[in-house]
Amino acid sequence: MFANPFAFADPLEFADPFGKDVPLTRWSTAWVFGGSQGIGRAVAEALAAGGSRVAIFARRPEPLEAAALEISAHAGGDGSAQAFPADVEDALGVAAACDKAAATFGPPRLVVNCAGRARPRRFVELTVEDLRATLRANLEGAWNVSQAALPHLTERGGTLVHTASLAGLIGVYGYSDYAASKAGLIALCEVLRQELEPKGVDVRVLCPPDVDTPGFSEENRSKPRETRLLSGSGGLLTAREVAGDLLKGLEGSRWQIVPGRTNRLAVRLKGIAPGLVDRLLRARLRRLQRQD
Ligand SMILES: NC(=O)c1ccc[n+]([C@@H]2O[C@H](COP(=O)([O-])OP(=O)(O)OC[C@H]3O[C@@H](n4cnc5c(N)ncnc54)[C@H](OP(=O)(O)O)[C@@H]3O)[C@@H](O)[C@H]2O)c1
Hints:
Elements: E1 29-33, H1 38-49, E2 53-58, H2 61-73, E3 80-85, H3 91-105, E4 110-113, H4 128-156, E5 158-163, H5 176-196, E6 201-206, E7 211-212, H6 214-220, H7 225-232, E8 237-238, H8 239-251, E9 256-257, H9 261-272, H10 274-290
Parallel strand pairs: 1-2, 1-4, 2-3, 4-5, 5-6, 6-9, 7-8
The structure holds NADP nicotinamide-adenine-dinucleotide phosphate.
NADP nicotinamide-adenine-dinucleotide phosphate (NAP) binds at residues 33-34, 36-40, 58-60, 63, 86-89, 114-118, 137, 141, 163, 165, 208, 210-211, 213-216.
């Protein structure tokens, strides 16, 4: 484990809700975008179980309210969750929701953005409108969250996490628009790290592999056969495992948090030998295509 150079993480200890490997750092106040289901919901649950006051944000008010109630019912210590409906694609709406959350809970120590979407299809089946919709949700949404949360995050210092994807680090068949949006998001986070560190904000990016969530089920409806076969061999993590890896990762100094050991090895190999990874991936695709 790496020493965290950012001293503003609340150093209070709490009973570990997710197993002995999850760190014992307590975030007093956290905001989770996309907190009503999937990865964001699991992150919000883990934080509230650890005693954090968590503001959760998503578009649909009913599932969001229901999630806040359930998360609060299982919260530990002073932990609780409250719903703040907002669409990350609406800059003014996100800013207004952040102001409300700050007025309710005070400035956040941790902001985790998990709002996003994937609609995998072959490039030839996609239109520029599909690209724009994906960029709006995954890149412009993250942009809006960053701008809206920043004035609150800088009040006491804190951590900002955006959720990209392993597909933003290693391109995968069927994800042309999605991979481009997530690679762009990783680049955005890299710049924000440099610009916001002097303001006391530690920016990280979470790059999950396939995770069993409602969003993943939706994604499977349009997934090309090759994408399904390629991703199927990589295994499926639970949202809870990803939340645990994120909280553990925030204790270390790596700015790209990649859940799963084999995924971390793949990313490392891509860094060392990108040509080899490209050849291996294409060879595997050719084998899969021959199996038709
Ligand atoms: N699951 C995977 O396999 C996987 C792998 C790699 C990366 N990721 C990334 O991880 C993130 C979470 O994925 P997930 O699978 O947990 O998704 P999910 O199950 O679809 O949940 C998405 C959450 O974000 C909210 N949301 C979506 N669009 C929003 C918007 N425009 N404004 C505000 N909230 C919005 C949703 O609620 P509402 O619909 O009510 O707004 C929901 O709470 C996404 O960025 C995804 O790209 C997922």
